[in-house]
Amino acid sequence: MRQTFDEHTDPSFGPRHVPLIRDAMKAQGLDGFLIPHEDEHQNEYLPEANDRLAWATGFTGSAGAAVILQDRAAVFVDGRYTLQVGEQVDPDVFEIRDLVEGGVPAYLETAPKGAVLGYDARLHSPDALAALRAAADKAGAVLKPVDANPLDQAWGQARPPQPTAPIVPQPLEFAGEDSAAKRERIGAGLRDAGAEAAVITAPSSIAWLFNIRGGDVIRSPLPLGQAVVNADGTARLFLDPVKVTDDLPAWLGNQVSLEAPEALDGALADLKGKKVLVDPGQSSAWYFDTLAAVGAEPVRGMDPCTLPRACKNAAEIEGTRRAHVRDGVAVTRFLHWVATEGQINPPDEKEAVAKLEGFREETGALKDLSFDTIGAANGHGALPHYRPTERSNERAAQGSFLLVDSGGQYLDGTTDITRTMAIGTPSAEMKQRYTLVLKGHLHLARVRFPAGTTGSALDALAREPLWQAGLDYDHGTGHGVGVYLGVHEGPQRISKAPNSIALRPGMILSNEPGYYKPGEYGIRIENLQVVTPAADIPGGERPMLGFENLTWAPIDRACIEADMLSDVERAQLNAYHAQVLDKIGPLVPADVREWLEGACAPI
């Protein structure tokens, strides 16, 4: 299996590792050290060698931070990880604090006056550092960049090596536009912005811009590297030579200089006197500091690849459609297994995850999972980011929900789908709340909206049925998704949080409202959908954008309280199921097809 159920950390990490970090801090004259979750590439999912927060604390969530002082320490997590952090971190070493309410800045305000607090400038964004520095100033403490990361020094020879996955071309049939054309577009954008070059550090931007893929980041075909792109479309690309495959130089062409990472400092020095675009949300403070030090003029701005990458071209959209039908066959076979064998012998979480992965492998096209599958039985379903382990594994009980959130990486597309299934007969309350989630999902799927609308403006549509019942959920409703890239992609999103990025044709987003009853069950229904071009509506005065559904797998009818659906919602669900049967039915075995006909029958 690609996914394992092992735990690579435990609560002993803090007692064992914090003293080593403190010794390294003391040798540098530091009274404290700041540890973000992010690495040098601001990754969400980290190579093992860069998961510093996990090594220091034992906490393995995808968001968090820690502060280690000489006499105390704290780890910071958001509400998704409250239970997990309690299981993974020793409370005698770390105080557990909220990442959002006050967070690290509030903790730094309590630092001793005169304390010297170290940080690695390669790991922090400039905006995050500004807030931290203001908090330290308020306490009378000093933030100091370090030349050598004391955590890395403490980790020493035990630290895993940096990943060296081969970097390969992404064929034009899947990319839809060659790298030279992309670089010319980016160069034109730089000229319009008055910049002469841009520094690109986000792995997904590197992969997209040069039409390459790698495997340095878990569950994502991303290469770790950096690039300097000039306004004339030429570029310098910095990659570890051991990862460079034989056909890569020719693929990149003469306008791209392929260089080792050690040459990056010199390349930045070569930008002296130039205006250089750098994204403060994607690139660390080190780049801004280094460019300023060599006499370049850093210009803050969005990574110029971000919006073009988010707006998929025709080849990418068509490939994504194919990938979702292929993936839908695997998911439908899994749903059939749960609805038949799984009702007689309810699976445990590990069995469910392994079964679904097996069906995806049988497509013959799976390159990787797009993230570790969330297979959550019983009360674990109320933990939106739960991942089963050997220790936590539970068997689904009769009268429960089994929530499975999963996805696959294919050469032509990235998938992400959540289905919540009944094991036995759900209670009236469970069906009522499942149907409220479904109503919100359907509303967001059918909405039409004018150009210029942001995801923040649409978020309430998915929540309104729950709000009417006095219910809600604490995660976003939709995230962007790449094409054989990261399963989480910006800048587009659908959430309560303000977002200035308008939705544009070609953007792929998830539609995943949910409901979670702590200790009892969780519900989430997720499809991916792509923003469609504006089209006239008879009698309308403005052309409207909309969504095209991409994900095809039945929604469990046993969980639905049909009387709660409006006529519009009933017709919409029935139409969706008719399409599932049409697209998936011919591609599954006869017994699955027979079951699918019932699963997709009109309500």
TrEMBL record:
<dbReference type="InterPro" id="IPR029149">
    <property type="entry name" value="Creatin/AminoP/Spt16_N"/>
</dbReference>
<dbReference type="InterPro" id="IPR033740">
    <property type="entry name" value="Pept_M24B"/>
</dbReference>
<dbReference type="GO" id="GO:0070006">
    <property type="term" value="F:metalloaminopeptidase activity"/>
</dbReference>
<dbReference type="GO" id="GO:0005737">
    <property type="term" value="C:cytoplasm"/>
</dbReference>
<dbReference type="Pfam" id="PF00557">
    <property type="entry name" value="Peptidase_M24"/>
</dbReference>
<keyword id="KW-0479">Metal-binding</keyword>
<keyword id="KW-0031">Aminopeptidase</keyword>
<dbReference type="InterPro" id="IPR032416">
    <property type="entry name" value="Peptidase_M24_C"/>
</dbReference>
<dbReference type="Pfam" id="PF01321">
    <property type="entry name" value="Creatinase_N"/>
</dbReference>
<dbReference type="InterPro" id="IPR036005">
    <property type="entry name" value="Creatinase/aminopeptidase-like"/>
</dbReference>
<dbReference type="InterPro" id="IPR000994">
    <property type="entry name" value="Pept_M24"/>
</dbReference>
<keyword id="KW-0378">Hydrolase</keyword>
<keyword id="KW-0645">Protease</keyword>
<dbReference type="GO" id="GO:0046872">
    <property type="term" value="F:metal ion binding"/>
</dbReference>
<comment type="similarity">
    <text>Belongs to the peptidase M24B family.</text>
</comment>
<feature type="domain" description="Creatinase N-terminal">
    <location>
        <begin position="21"/>
        <end position="146"/>
    </location>
</feature>
<protein>
    <submittedName>
        <fullName>X-Pro aminopeptidase</fullName>
    </submittedName>
</protein>
<dbReference type="InterPro" id="IPR050422">
    <property type="entry name" value="X-Pro_aminopeptidase_P"/>
</dbReference>
<dbReference type="InterPro" id="IPR000587">
    <property type="entry name" value="Creatinase_N"/>
</dbReference>
<dbReference type="Pfam" id="PF16188">
    <property type="entry name" value="Peptidase_M24_C"/>
</dbReference>
<feature type="domain" description="Peptidase M24">
    <location>
        <begin position="319"/>
        <end position="532"/>
    </location>
</feature>
<feature type="domain" description="Peptidase M24 C-terminal">
    <location>
        <begin position="543"/>
        <end position="603"/>
    </location>
</feature>
<dbReference type="Pfam" id="PF16189">
    <property type="entry name" value="Creatinase_N_2"/>
</dbReference>
